Amino acid sequence: MSPDAIDCFFARLAERNPEPRSELEYVNPYTLLVAVVLSAQATDVGVNRATRALFATVQSPAAMLALGEAGLREAIKTIGLFNTKARNIIRLSEMLERDHDGRVPEQREALEALPGVGRKTANVVLNVAFGQPTIAVDTHIFRVANRTGLAPGRTPTAVEAGLEAVVPDRWKRHAHHWLILHGRYLCKARSPACPLCPVADLCAFPDKTVVLPPSARWRRR
Predict the structure, then answer these.
(1) What CATH number is given to the structural domain containing 185?
(2) N or C: which terminal CB in the chain sees fewer CB atoms within 10 Å?
(3) Enclosing domain of residue 80
(4) Active-site annotation holder among 4, 85, 120, 201
(5) What's the Cα-to-Cα distance from 220 to each of 28, 191, 203, 212, 215, rounded to whole Å?
(6) What is the tens place of the pLDDT at every residue in 35-88?
(7) Which of 138, 172, 188, 201 is catalytic?
(8) Has 207 been annotated as catalytic?
(9) How many CB atoms lie within 10 A of CB 72?
(10) Residue 138 catalytic?
(11) 205: buried, middle or exposed (CB in 10 Å: 19+, 13-18, 0-12)?
């Protein structure tokens, strides 16, 4: 995709959604961090369902430690891998209290040193909580970048590097969310809603759908 096409690609997504937001529910940087850790191999909807009651009372590492691992497991038991996630969240809460005065650090290296926090999780926190122009490559972004020709790559790391290289600076702040939402609701893995896509003419995907899949037809009404 040419530089002009890439600029146009993001301009159109921005026109439709000027201020995209994470669909994870959170109160502050700490609850965002917890929600993102919980979202690994889980849906945002499922995480939000479990965390609404949790975040009503637990909004800091100290409060999480007071709840304890058993209490946290009970609160998040509907989420996949909840035992491992509860253990990691308690451990990262201990580290935040001990090493960061109970605050979520704004540096990638410090975030990635926390249990259960990898590059993707760190990128989400840096972008959403602190406004840094990072791009967290999840399954949706990986698919959109490869399918459209925006930034093809064989691994999430390669796709992230490609996007960092080609996305114009003026779009980088929100590129992460535009691409996730585009992949989640239009450029789906199966039966993408190409007839509704605002960037279909810029996309290199050779097998565009010409008829809306049933799940997308309601959007026309």
Answers:
(1) 1.10.1670.10
(2) C
(3) 29-128
(4) 120
(5) 36, 16, 21, 10, 11
(6) 999 999 899 999 999 999 999 999 999 999 999 999 999 999 999 899 999 999
(7) 138
(8) no
(9) 22
(10) yes
(11) middle
Residue 76 near residue 85, CB atoms below 8 Å: yes
Of the residues 128, 144, 159, the one at which a domain ends: 128
Question: For the stretch 115-136, what's the b/e string if a residue is b when 16 or more beta carbons lie within 10 angstroms of its beta carbon?
Answer: bbbebbbbbbbbbbbeeebbbb
In a domain, 24, yes or no: no
Please work out, in degrees rounded to the nearest 5, the angle formed at the alpha carbon of residue 209 by the alpha carbons of 208 and 210. Answer: 115
Token look-up 């930034």 returns 151
Say which amino acid occupies 198: P
Residues 45 and 62: beta-carbon distance below 8 Å: no
Q: Is 55 exposed, middle or buried (0-12, 13-18, 19+ CB in 10 A)?
A: buried
Q: Are residues 66 and 105 in the same domain?
A: yes
Return the H-helix or E-strand segment holding 196: none
Domain end point (choices 97, 128, 159):
128
Per-residue pLDDT tens over the stretch 139-188 = 999 999 999 999 999 999 999 999 999 999 999 999 999 999 999 999 99
The alpha carbon dihedral of 82, 84, 86, 88 has a sign of: negative
SS3 content of the chain, % helix, strand, coil (to 5): 60, 0, 40
Indicate the residue type of 43. T
122 shares a domain with 41: yes
CB 99 within 8 A of CB 115: no
